[in-house]
């Protein structure tokens, strides 16, 4: 099938497809030998061979090893020290011969700590015998690993970071203060509107005669908490004022309003309230011919009289 297909392609396209057919020749040969199998063919890499050359490692160690005194080497190999804390707490510590669980972080680090402790306890007496000081003198001066210029740059960066943090904190505080100031300003405006509304309502009540008190003219004096309830109790005990009583008497209070002033047969025949002296101008309060009645005071006079009350 492959050979027929390639011949057909060659007859149509000419020499251009000849290289393609020639490149398939190795695959055809491998297929004919049975080396190719159906499926995906993946190249397998050869495994790397590892060599454990112990003799060569020993030769290399002998080449660069130097027989130096212990003071120059300062190497010690010893088991860990006794875990005093575990004994005091009644816990069972890991012995020197036992294996340490590498997955247990605390146990592993404590084993390192105890081994370093045992090394220090063994090394200090040896150093003291050799007259080597183990404590730093007070006038000890050591050259720094980093230059002063580098440390100055580090210091400047730290100062810049600190300044940036302080600026950000100040900005946060200012934003919070502005928010609080706006809140306080809104509360003050609302309180002023409430006071203005209460003042206008008190003035209207005074104008209508519902109250005769002028406490609302005292200004911004602080009133006690129960000041709003007290006038109501006083008003309820005292009852309506004179103006309200007069209007109730004149125009009626409740009930049917229309036709309340109409004359009837009984009211026409009732002459009990008739006074002849007053009617003919002979009485004390007569207002007949030649006599002037009581003149009503003007508007300003009435307002002053009202204010005196």
Uncertain segments are 1-22
Average pLDDT score: 76
User: Would you list the SSEs in sequence order as H and E?
Assistant: HHHHHHHHHHHHH
Helix percentage: 55-70%
Largest sheet: none
Count every beta strand, where a strand is a DSSP E run of 2 or more residues: 0
Secondary-structure-based class equals mainly alpha
Label the overall shape.
elongated
Report the C-alpha radius of gyration, rounded: 59 Å
Question: What is the CA-CA span between the terminal residues?
Answer: 130 Å
Number of helices: 13
Portion in beta strands: under 5%
Protein name: EBNA1 binding protein 2
Organism: Denticeps clupeoides
Pfam family, one: Ebp2
Biased composition (Basic and acidic residues): 214-225
Note down, in words, how this protein is organized.
- This protein is mainly α.
- It contains 13 helices and no strands.
- The termini are far apart.
- The N terminus is likely disordered.
């Amino acid at each position: 099938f492959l050979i027929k297909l390639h011949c057909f392609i060659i007859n149509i396209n000419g020499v251009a497809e000849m290289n393609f057919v020639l490149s398939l020749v190795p695959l055809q040969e491998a297929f004919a030998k049975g080396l190719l199998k159906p499926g995906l063919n993946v190249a397998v890499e050869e495994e790397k061979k590892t060599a454990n050359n112990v003799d060569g490692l020993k030769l290399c160690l002998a080449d660069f090893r130097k027989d130096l005194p212990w003071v120059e080497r300062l190497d010690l190999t010893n088991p860990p020290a006794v875990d005093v804390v575990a004994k005091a707490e009644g816990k069972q510590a890991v012995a020197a011969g036992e294996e340490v669980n590498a997955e247990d972080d605390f146990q592993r680090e404590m084993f390192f700590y105890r081994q370093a402790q045992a090394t220090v306890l063994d090394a200090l007496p040896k150093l003291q015998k050799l007259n080597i000081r183990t404590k730093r003198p007070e006038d000890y001066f050591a050259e720094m690993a980093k230059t002063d210029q580098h440390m100055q740059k580090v210091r400047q960066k730290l100062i810049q970071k600190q300044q940036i943090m302080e600026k950000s904190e100040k900005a946060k505080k200012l934003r919070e203060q502005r928010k609080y100031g706006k809140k306080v300003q809104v509360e003050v405006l609302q309180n002023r509107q409430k006071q203005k509304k209460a003042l206008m309502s008190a003035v209207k009540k005074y104008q209508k005669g519902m109250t005769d008190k002028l406490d609302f003219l005292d200004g911004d004096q602080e009133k006690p908490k129960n000041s709003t309830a007290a006038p109501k109790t006083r008003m309820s005990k005292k009852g309506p004022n004179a103006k309200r009583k007069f209007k109730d008497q004149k125009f009626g209070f409740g009930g049917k309003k229309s036709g309340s002033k109409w004359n009837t047969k009984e009211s026409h025949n009732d002459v009990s309230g008739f006074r002849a002296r007053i009617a003919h101008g002979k009485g004390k309060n007569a207002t007949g011919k030649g006599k002037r009645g009581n003149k009503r005071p003007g508007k300003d006079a009435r307002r002053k009289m009202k204010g005196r009350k």
